[in-house]
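Hi R.,

Here's the chain you asked about this morning:
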Amino acid sequence: MKSDNIDRVLRSAAQRGEENPAAMPFGFDTRVVALWRAALPTSNGLMQLLRRVAVLSAAVIVVSTIAAVREANQSREIRGSLTNEFAITDSAIQDEFLK
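And the predicted structure, written out as tokens:
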């Protein structure tokens, strides 16, 4: 009896033929995504606040680092020009004393 059932199922499958695969119903993917998002745990706002604080802190660190590097470069330039001016002044003073 079991082989008769299997033969019948196989004959039905053979007669079916090839058809286009069934398409997903309209809006199904949207419903799946909506149900998935609804299943996610909702936060109480504290995590969002912590994320914003972390992003703002990172931005402040980046800006302050850029400002510190720029200030250090300007300080080196000023220090370099002052040493040249002091050297010129020192040599001029020594020249005056040698006369």
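DSSP finds three helices and no strands in the chain.

Let me know if you need anything else.
M.
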